[in-house]
Amino acid sequence: MKKVCVLGAGLVAGPLVEYLLNFDDIQVKVADIEVDKARHLVKDHPRGQAFQLDLNDRQNLETLISDVEVVVSMVPYTFHPYVAGICLEHGKHLVTASYVSQEMKALDGKAKEKGLTFLNELGLDPGIDHMEAMRLIHEAKASGGRVVSFISYCGGLPAPEAKDNPFGYKFSWSPRGVLLAGRNEARYLKDGKEVVVPAEQLFAHYQMIEIPGLGVFEGYPNRNSVSYIETYGIHETRTMLRGTLRYPGWCLKLKKIGELGLLDIAEREWKARTYAEFLREFLELGPQEPLQEQVAAKLGLTPDSEVIQSFDWLGLFSDRPLPTRKISPLDLLAALMVDKLKYKEGERDMTILQHEIIVEYSDSRREKITSTLIDFGIPHGHTSMSRTVGLPVAIGVKLILENKIHLRGVLIPTAAEIYDPILQELKTLGIRFKEERNFI
Questions:
Q1: Catalytic pick from 24, 54, 125, 191?
Q2: pTM (predicted TM-score)
């Protein structure tokens, strides 16, 4: 019997555990600080076991890891190097869905020495995006082409029928993570020139992107796209952009939230007891004028503007009590959003991932290739986000258990040995790209 340990039973772990338990020769241990979450995932399956685990309890963690072949770390990314260190000590393979940190990268040599595979960035973004990108790039190069432009956008959104709030957004993953992403500067390459977008300008720097069959979305750059020129091995490209997709209106609202300072992560002790009082205290507003009018004036808007109305709907001007008195503005905002921007029972989420590459051939012909993944959650079942993150992780685990991945060290899925079988298996599970090609 092959054994796997899944650390973390959060929002995207369900399809991962379910997939692995479908195989008669795999036993799955699921551990979480909230053991009921782990029990919910394994249910009463004879090859599933649930454990309570505090990651700070190293002895208990070592006991769990020492008894399996592959460890799946679905805990917050800051813990991955810690988990990886224990995997090194006990000679266990590791799979994560998170970006490779410098601390994780530093373990590459030791993992190779021990013959271990530490496979990271195996979710949706990062993950499926890398796999389809490398499939397209390798195919273009095999045909004698040069990739001169690479533009990619990804978004996890409500399905059109579930887009029923002023933000056009609902959370299928960490609300705090979504807001923290708005604090990052962005870098990308356009026509051979590097463009740097300061964090405070991020939400002013968007384009309208059309997705066939779904309409127009806002797309804004995501962190450092330039580094992917090296990752993808396309040093000849003159354009390299990876971005985030949202429904129209999101960027203006988040820009104004940023202008108010509500993405500040510094904890403070507030005298305020309600959100309305917090805004007055934080923005140093007097009690004389109506709050909405003061905030509108501060942002150069009218009180009846779409932005101010969306803030009102969210509860920023309300007498809703603060969740706690010592907290950051960003976490106060996240607490409101997680309550108001949530999926109702039976609603579907939607994942969109689109790559657009331009390939130049030796005869000067240029081909535009667009590859688009559109996936919907299952009403009363798994979300699209949990499937597109959890299933590639699960398939990667199975490939390692079957000794079908021979690469060692700290990896991401840019090699055909990894991405080909995962993309093929995802197709059988209904997660597939639609490709269009045109000479331009």
A1: 125
A2: 0.92
